[in-house]
Design goal:
Strand order of the largest sheet: 18-23-24-31-28-27-25-26
Strand content: 25-35%
Helix content: 25-40%
Distance between the termini: 71 Å
Radius of gyration: 31 Å
Structural class: alpha+beta
Shape: globular
RNA sequence: GCCUGCAUAGCUCAGUAGGUAGAGCAACUGACUUGUAAUCAGUAGGUCGUUGGUUCGAUUCCGACUGCAGGCUCCA
């Protein structure tokens, strides 16, 4: 019997059935056969060795594509599990998927794996690849599968199968002595994995992601189509590490943290200069967009947090104190305080939308394991604002906000933004009708802005759904910064109301929103994004005046004064050192402009400018430099190259 | 909070198979007046995170605690 196989380019070829993916690949070219790892058959991913018995549309998956890498990574996880079972037979295997850049497998074992074990496991994996064991797919009866895995002591596997929907076909893959439940697809044999993998780290992970369950041992690895790709990836990771904000924060003398104040930042003069630049920028932008800035108290009676619902949901994570028989909490967030400001005086529908903003200092007793540099801290400042409005105004306000956020992120040099819509969680306040309307409003706003977004069911705040705006950092980690949340419940709980057009009392809708999120976290991301070399408008020290000879000291002081008068953050280096030494030091500090001053410059009233990232020096009159540099700062130019191309 | 690992000079790191530690840079002193990524010489600097235990003796071995790192969980 012959069947028609349709290829991605529309070509149709006849084959004698049954035929396998590997035979199809071979019929096209030996190169394709060598590089193929799986095949898409009528939209479903199949093993290359699985027989195709009827007409089908196929697409051969090669090892260098995203789908191919996923297959390789999944196989790497299986090979790792096989290696672990060979070396430590008492270990139980659970699940092992492919992930971005690699794979992991979760194991249950009494004894902890050590870093030395990883080396042994990796070596055994290489052996298994060398053995080139055939990987065979088998369809099993559900109960037989459960019995089998129970029989060999793999209770986790048995549990997974028992929980699979009845309709699911139970497939088992066999390689050598190792048998694993898996949907596939997999490589025809272990040898095809080749040597582009490496085990990277050891971690704990809860069974089924629930902290009430047993903790398993997770081994992470990275896997690529070949060794060259692997090496390139490892180099990328090394580069990324150099950008780490904790390293740069120390090297550039921006901030420090110490044992006595875990999760809190000591900002040094230079770091604080950046912090201030960011905050002042936001203040101006908010004013331009119709926000009014306020400031609310740090220590507030616990009763307010009980009314708002925060105490019951986050009580354990709040810093509390009592004095004079009264219980207080250090504010973990600003919203209830903002409602208090709204509640002062009688509000009219004419006052809406009312946009109250605060650089609100908040404290949260985050779990010790959650802390991470200045990205996740216990003491932080939010660029927080709450918009009190009518239901009709939600759409427009959210749309406005998204536009605002895009403008801000672009100014800071971010163009990769990930949008997520988080909907009602299990533990929540407010009626289902309110949640329906709130979720709809946000979804509408995202779609109206033509944005691509992911849904995160159940991830909303306890008082309302939210859109999360995340930025991708240099290591590819996603950091949530901006957010906008629709809240139908808190204003009512805290007694907010306004007089409507018809004279009736109405409860306003409250939009919670932030663009930077936490300033601490945002600065961390900013440092990593720019590898510490902040654009001139954000740099802590924008210009450094460095003298070549002591005779130029007086003129250098004049230059410093002129720069500072022009609003430029400048310093002067009069030390008795060689100019090469000074240039090196200030270049390492990534200062955007170094102005070298020697005898010639002093006589001519010029400066010799050396820009960060360039070895070239340009001698120009002081006034010209100031004018040019000021424009660069005012326009928030992101790089000098942009400046030259723009002018 | 949980799992694994780590904690030595201001910084980056070495070291001690148990006998109280060393380099480079930085700091300080002196000389050098210098033209674009490190001038030379000298000096000083450490309860080896805290705290118990084992030992004649612990920075080193064991335990607890604190902090940090990578994950997991959490993130108003």
């Amino acid at each position: 019997m012959s069947i028609n196989i349709t290829f991605p380019d529309g070509a149709i070829k006849q084959f004698d059935a049954p035929i396998t993916g590997i035979e199809i690949a071979d019929s096209i070219s030996s190169g394709l056969r060598r590089n193929s790892v799986a095949i898409t058959v009528n939209g479903e991913q199949w093993d290359l060795t699985r027989e195709i018995t009827a007409d089908a549309t196929v697409d051969i998956i090669t090892r260098d594509t995203d789908a191919g890498l996923e297959v390789l990574r999944h196989d790497a996880a299986h090979v790792m599990a096989e290696a672990v079972k060979e070396l430590y037979p008492e270990t139980q295997v659970t699940i092992g998927p492919s992930i971005e850049n690699g794979f992991y497998y979760d194991f249950a074992r009494e004894e902890a794996f050590t870093p030395e074990d990883l080396i042994a496991i990796e070596a055994r994996m290489k052996e298994i690849v060398k053995r080139n064991e055939a990987i065979v797919r088998e369809v099993w009866d559900r109960d037989d599968a459960i019995e089998y895995f129970k029989g060999i002591g793999e209770v986790y596997k048995a549990e997974i199968i028992a929980d699979l929907p009845e309709s699911e076909t139970i497939t088992v893959y066999k390689q050598g002595e190792f048998l694993d439940l898996c949907r596939g697809p997999h490589l025809p044999s272990t040898g095809i994995l080749r040597d582009g993998f490496k085990l990277t780290k050891l971690a704990g992970a809860y069974w089924r992601g629930d902290s009430n369950n047993a903790q398993l041992q997770r081994i992470y690895g990275t896997a690529w189509s070949d060794k060259k790709q692997l090496k390139a990836y490892l180099r990328r990771m090394e580069e990324a590490e150099k950008r780490d904000h904790r390293k740069l924060g120390k090297a550039l003398d921006l901030f420090h943290m110490q044992d006595e104040a875990p999760g809190s930042v000591f900002w040094h003069p230079k770091g604080w200069a950046v912090y201030q630049a960011v905050q002042q920028y936001m203040g101006v932008k908010q004013y331009e967009r119709g926000y009014q800035e306020i400031k609310t108290p740090q220590v507030v009676d616990i009763s307010l947090w009980e009314k708002s619902g925060h105490a019951s949901k986050f009580g354990d994570d709040m810093f509390t104190l009592s004095t004079d028989d009264r219980d207080y909490a250090i504010k973990p967030m600003n919203c209830p305080c903002h409602v208090q400001v709204f509640n002062q005086g009688l509000k009219s529908y004419r006052d809406l939308p009312l946009r109250l903003a605060e650089f609100g200092s908040c404290h949260r007793n985050e779990m010790s394991g959650a802390l991470h540099g200045i990205m996740r801290v216990r003491s932080f400042v939010q660029d927080d604002a709450h918009i009190f409005c009518t239901e009709d105004q939600i759409q427009e306000e959210v749309k406005e906000f998204i536009d605002f956020l895009h403008e801000v992120y672009a100014d800071f040099g971010f163009d990769q933004i990930v949008y997520k819509l988080s909907t009602r969680p299990e533990q929540r306040v407010g009626s289902d009708e309110d949640w329906d309307r709130a979720e709809q409003a946000l979804e509408q706003a995202l779609n109206d802005n033509g944005l691509e977004w992911d849904l995160q069911p159940g991830e909303g705040a306890f008082y309302g759904p939210k859109i999360e705006f995340s930025l991708k950092d240099c290591i590819g980690r996603l950091w949530q910064c901006g957010t906008v949340q629709v809240d139908f419940s808190m204003p009512g709980r805290l007694g907010a109301e306004y007089i409507a057009e018809d004279g009736s009392k109405q409860v306003p809708v409250m939009l919670h929103r932030a663009i930077l999120g936490s300033l601490e976290r945002f600065l961390g991301i900013l440092i990593e994004q720019h590898a510490g070399a902040l654009p001139a408008w954000l740099a802590p020290q924008q210009a450094m005046v460095a003298t070549i000879v002591t005779d130029a000291n007086d003129y250098a002081q004049e230059v410093l004064k002129a720069l500072r008068n022009a609003g430029i953050r400048a310093e002067v280096d009069l030390r008795n050192e060689k100019i090469g030494y000074k240039v090196r030091e200030h270049s390492l500090q990534k200062i955007p402009a170094i102005l070298c001053i020697g005898k010639r410059e002093a006589e001519e009233g010029t400066v010799a400018v050396r820009r960060f990232g360039s070895k070239a020096q340009t001698v120009m009159p002081l006034e010209e430099f100031i004018e040019q540099f000021q424009t660069e700062i005012d326009d928030k130019q992101l790089s000098v190259t942009e400046q030259t191309s723009a002018s």
